[in-house]
Backbone:
């Protein structure tokens, strides 16, 4: 059996399905529902077995269309930084507010992707977010929590 | 009926109602382009405004918003691979690759004409078949729905690229597993939440779509930035191309549109099915009926592959009005919101609607067609301008895609957890995409998961735990036989190619 990344993914999916199946069997159902033809754990149990079946087949059958990825050409560093910025954005959006965090997120992302046209970077972050926020909050009446703008008295 | 049509035309063609359709189409297009804000949100936002109008005008405005939002969703699917509306996920399969090849203008034009044709044909079907179709849709039982969903999932796995059937089936199972997270719909027992309150209501559909399509697309582009094989694609992304559809492409569309409109309309008529399933099924059917040469182009910018889901989703929009107007059963989430508005106007939908309120029934049907014409007139000239989104440099476009994705989720839940979950799913999806695991089957399975469990539950409870329900009814057996035929055909074709 040729071991390639697709096989490793299939193996991981097999393990995940086994864990899913184990968790499905642990779902607590009402006592009167225990022997019913269908209860809250029936469908997940079928899914767990289906996952084992398909990933098992993928594991044991030969893979004629092996995908080869050249990791040398992949930009892991920039992608990682972008994901990190997105996580920080998610962590601060509620506490600091939509306007400032979104503007800073956009500005930082442009910067880390190699952009250095500062005026354009500014225009496509702070004023752009302000306009978008006006569309959502002002026109479409979708509430956007923003403690920062509230603290400086821009938002009520 | 002629009298009814004339009443409808008279009502729909008043200055105020034409203006309402135009306003609805325009705002619907803009809202539909914003990921996370689909037609349901758009219509919900319109409800307070429509209460100032008479019922016919209010519903005409909402119908305009509905069609506009579906077209807007197609635009973001084609240009950014970020479907703004679930019903346009299938549009991105071939629309986005076409845009990557520098044919963004053409892809938008094909989508606009297909939507128009799908909407026009379905308005004609609706005109003549609404009363009789409502009876047919009522004959569908839980086993038939369950079998229909199995057919949909198998079809999408079968039409995945060569040698990907098992990968697609794994993605189907993963999609169903994700859909099973949260409270069980009947017993309210929580499943797979691991005591996390944020998961009690399950994972939102928009979150999964944004993570697996928009966000993972953005991450993939950054990841493959220095990959010489994707460099050519990045260059062509700045080309907008012509919006003219040539003779060969028109010929393909002439064949695709009628069959996809029928599928879309019929699926739309079934209560609970809707535009998403219709577009996936139309895409699957189209791939199965075209020539082998054309089949190879699917997923790489096929005209048929773009035209089929676009025709079907608009046809399904019209179809979903059938159960709503004639039975009072909404065919989709969006029509459920419209039904709420209708009840708010004091109008009781049902078989007697065209007797008690003929002006409402027929004016909605007539305004649908007028809405289609207006949508085409408004959007076709705007295509070259809309397509310029693609000319935005990657350094700006990628953060903007991430921004729209996160905002889409944030405005829905105001919750950090959903943002983290979206990023997590996007990272896994990016990795899976690197190794050619297809995402569309995961999305369709996620959409169908709840409905599938519900129909399996009803079927098994009614048959007292026996699986005989699968062949007890002729309709169920026919649908399952079609599913088996698709699988056998797929295995046969694979086997034949190997030899």
Residues:
């Amino acid at each position: 059996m040729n071991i390639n990344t697709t096989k490793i993914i299939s193996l991981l999916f097999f393990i995940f399905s086994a864990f899913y199946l184990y968790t499905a069997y642990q779902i607590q159902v009402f006592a009167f529902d225990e022997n019913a033809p269908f209860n809250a754990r029936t469908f997940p149990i079928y899914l767990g077995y289906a996952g084992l079946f398909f990933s098992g087949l993928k594991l044991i059958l030969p893979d004629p269309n092996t995908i080869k990825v050249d990791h040398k050409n992949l930009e892991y560093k920039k992608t990682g930084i972008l994901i990190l910025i997105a996580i920080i954005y998610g962590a601060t959006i509620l506490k600091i507010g939509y306007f400032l965090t979104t503007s800073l997120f956009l500005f930082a992302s442009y910067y880390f992707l190699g952009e250095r046209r500062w005026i354009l970077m500014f225009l496509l972050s702070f004023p752009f977010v302000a306009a978008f926020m006006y569309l959502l909050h002002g026109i479409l009446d979708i509430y956007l929590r923003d403690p920062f703008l509230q603290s400086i008295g821009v938002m009520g | 009926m002629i009298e009814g049509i004339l009443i409808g035309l008279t009502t729909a063609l008043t200055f105020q109602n034409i203006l309402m359709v135009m306003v609805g189409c325009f705002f619907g297009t803009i809202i539909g382009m914003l990921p996370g804000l689909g037609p349901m949100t758009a219509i919900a936002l319109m409800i307070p405004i429509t209460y100032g109008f008479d019922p016919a005008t209010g519903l005409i405005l909402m119908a305009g918003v509905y069609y506009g939002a579906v077209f807007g969703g197609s635009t973001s699917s084609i240009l950014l691979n970020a479907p703004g509306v679930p019903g346009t996920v299938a549009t991105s399969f071939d629309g986005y690759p076409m845009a990557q090849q520098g044919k963004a203008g053409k892809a938008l034009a094909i989508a606009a004409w297909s939507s128009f044709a799908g909407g026009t044909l379905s308005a004609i079907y609706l005109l003549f078949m609404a009363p009789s179709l409502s009876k047919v849709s009522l004959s569908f039982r839980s086993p038939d729905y369950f079998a229909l969903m199995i057919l949909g999932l198998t079809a999408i796995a079968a039409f995945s690229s060569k040698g990907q059937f098992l990968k697609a089936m794994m993605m189907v199972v993963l999609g169903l597993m994700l859909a099973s997270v949260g409270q069980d719909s009947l017993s309210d027992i929580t499943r797979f939440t691991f005591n996390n309150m944020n998961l009690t209501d399950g994972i939102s559909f928009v979150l999964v779509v944004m993570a697996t399509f928009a966000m993972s697309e953005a991450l993939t582009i950054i990841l493959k930035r220095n990959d010489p094989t994707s460099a050519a694609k990045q260059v062509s992304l700045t080309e907008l191309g012509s919006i003219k559809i040539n003779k060969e492409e028109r010929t393909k569309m002439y064949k695709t549109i009628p069959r996809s409109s029928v599928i879309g309309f019929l699926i739309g008529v079934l209560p609970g099915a809707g535009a998403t399933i219709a577009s996936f099924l139309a895409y699957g059917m189209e791939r199965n009926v075209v020539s082998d040469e054309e089949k190879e182009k699917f997923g790489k910018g096929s005209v048929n592959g773009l035209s089929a889901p676009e025709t079907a989703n608009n046809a399904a929009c019209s179809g979903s009005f059938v159960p709503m107007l004639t039975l009072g059963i909404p065919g989709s989430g969006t029509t459920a919101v419209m039904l709420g508005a209708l009840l708010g106007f004091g109008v009781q939908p049902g078989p007697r609607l065209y007797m008690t309120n003929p002006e409402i029934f027929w004016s909605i049907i007539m305004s649908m067609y007028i809405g289609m014409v207006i949508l085409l007139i408004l959007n076709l000239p705007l295509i070259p301008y809309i397509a310029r989104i693609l000319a935005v440099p990657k350094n700006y476009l990628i953060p903007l895609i991430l921004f729209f994705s996160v905002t889409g989720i944030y405005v829905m839940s105001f919750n950090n957890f959903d943002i983290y979950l979206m990023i997590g799913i996007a990272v896994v999806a990016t990795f899976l995409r690197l190794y050619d695991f297809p995402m569309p089957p995961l999305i369709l399975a996620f959409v169908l998961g709840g409905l599938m469990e519900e129909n399996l539950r009803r079927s098994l409870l009614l048959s007292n735990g026996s699986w005989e329900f699968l062949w007890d009814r002729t309709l169920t057996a026919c649908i399952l036989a079609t599913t088996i035929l698709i699988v056998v055909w797929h295995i046969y074709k694979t086997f034949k190619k190997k030899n």
Remarks:
- Chain A touches chain B through 70 residues (CB under 8 Å).
- The radius of gyration of chain A is 25 Å.
